[in-house]
Every structure is written in C-alpha cells, then in structure tokens.
Amino acid sequence: MPRIIGVDIPSNKRLEISLTYLYGIGRSVSKEIIEKLALDPNMRAGKLSEEDIARLNSVLQSQYVVEGDLRRQVQNNIKRLMSIHSYRGLRHRLGLPVRGQRTRTNSRTRKGRRKTVANKKK
Asked: pTM of the full predicted structure?
C-alpha cells in the first residue's frame, strides 16, 4: 500500500480512485493532480514508483489543503461560528441540522439520541 501524506491508499484500485481516499480530494481534484504530474489515471496505485509518490506528496503539501490541515481549518471555522453566537454556531452546539433541514422527523436519527426541538404538549 502506498503511503501518501501519512495515509495508506489502496494499491489494487486505479490511481484516480485511490487518491480520493485522502480527506479533501475528490474525483475532479484527483484528475487535476494526475494531469499535473503526467501520470496514467488507469494505473493501479500499487505500481507507483518511489519517485512518483514523492512528487505526489510534494504537490499535495505545496498546492492543496488536505488531511490534517483541512480538518483543523473546518473545526476552527465551526468554533468561530460558535464563539460569535451565530445561528449556525448555535445549531452546531445543539447537534441539530445546520443547513435548514426539517427537524420534526428526520434529524434525530442522524445525530444519535433524541433532542428536544420544541415544547410539544401531549
């Protein structure tokens, strides 16, 4: 298994798909990186040479925000929303849907135990 930025990517899958196992890299960014480095997208990730892996590491670290840095950035953004007491920050704090989804039925199953949304009289 090749190790890129501290993450083992599957060696038996195509390179284009294997790169998507890194946090912050989807299909389009994966294709972009492969074109930039002039690699074969149909090649299996296990066939990468040490030189190719080194080039991949350097490009990912210099030009893209991925893995730990991206996770940290997202968490800092959420903490900032909470600290300024914005509506989205409040929803994050309560563990409720942030982007306007309904809460009467579906949101409870996604986030675990029941959370009281409104004072419902029986």
From this structure: 0.74
